[in-house]
Amino acid sequence: MESTDMTEVHKEFGGDRVPPGQRETEAFPVLSKDGVPSWEPASWRFRVRGAVERELSLSLSEFRSLPHETQRQDFHCVTGWSRLGCEFTGVRFPTIVERVGVADAVESVTFSALDGYTTSLPLSDCLREDVLFAWALDGEPLPDEHGGPLRVVTPHKYAYKGAKWVTGIEFRTEHERGYWEKRGYSDAANPWREDRYS
Ligand SMILES: Nc1nc2c(c(=O)[nH]1)N[C@H]1C(S)=C(S)[C@@H](COP(=O)(O)O)O[C@H]1N2
Ligand SMILES: [Mo]
């Protein structure tokens, strides 16, 4: 499958491919606040709400029929490991934005997930080609423990900014910190500035 190379994002921040304080790993460790949440394919929905012109609710098959891409990217965990050259397939964030019409006053996006996890990013950090709602990893369906059926990936941020098991996004006029950001992790989360803790 053809993939877009997003492994040069480090150049945007003037850093090396492996950010400071990170070490490369071949494995793909799993980090979840609790276990793997259960879900039913028939009742699973992805919902977009908040300050938008049209709210959206999509089934899994509707979501998978949106225009999608495969990208090659690196994945940086705040605990110190980086997995280079992951291939994720899914829908780019801007593709969702086109469909809902975001109000001018929107500042921030909150992602929510089946396990109760939340994370948030300024809208400008989401309006990027490399922020993806992904359902496949390295050509295989995204494993449950890595967030299947759908997760967010944010190659320009530490991985806690990417919600696994994502089922909703809310466009907000005010920024609200997410689960880990309220518990001491940096809200900025830039790996090349080592924004680990707040
Ligand atoms: N829904 C949900 N998303 C989540 C988490 C979580 O606990 N729940 N953990 C975050 C953290 S801290 C990291 S490092 C990455 C880990 O992704 P992985 O388990 O695929 O390596 O997912 C992020 N997204
Ligand atoms: Mo993490």
What does this structure look like?
The mean pLDDT is 98. The strands form two sheets. Strands 1, 2, 5, 6, 9, 10 and 11 form a seven-stranded mixed β-sheet that branches. This protein has a five-stranded mixed β-sheet with strand order 4-3-12-7-8. The chain is globular and about 40 Å long. The chain has one domain: Alpha-Beta Complex (Sulfite Oxidase, Chain A, domain 2), CATH 3.90.420. 33% of the residues are buried. With 198 residues, the chain is mostly beta strands. It has four helices and twelve strands, in the order βαβββαββαββαββββ. Helices cover 11% and strands 31% of the residues.
User: What is the straight-line distance between the termini?
Assistant: 40 Å
Query: At the third CATH level, what is the topology name?
Result: Sulfite Oxidase, Chain A, domain 2
Approximate helicity band:
10-25%
Largest sheet: 7 strands, mixed
Number of helices: 4
Features:
single chain, 198 residues, mainly beta, Sulfite Oxidase, Chain A, domain 2, 7-stranded mixed sheet, 5-stranded mixed sheet, 4 helices, globular, binds ligand MTE, binds molybdenum atom
In short:
This protein is mostly beta strands.
Set out the fold topology.
Blueprint: E1 4-5, H1 9-12, E2 23-24, E3 46-50, E4 56-58, H2 60-64, E5 69-76, E6 81-92, H3 93-100, E7 108-113, E8 118-122, H4 123-126, E9 132-137, E10 140-141, E11 151-153, E12 166-172
Parallel strand pairs: 1-5, 2-6, 3-12
Antiparallel strand pairs: 3-4, 5-6, 6-9, 7-8, 7-12, 9-10, 9-11
Bound molecules: ligand MTE and molybdenum atom.
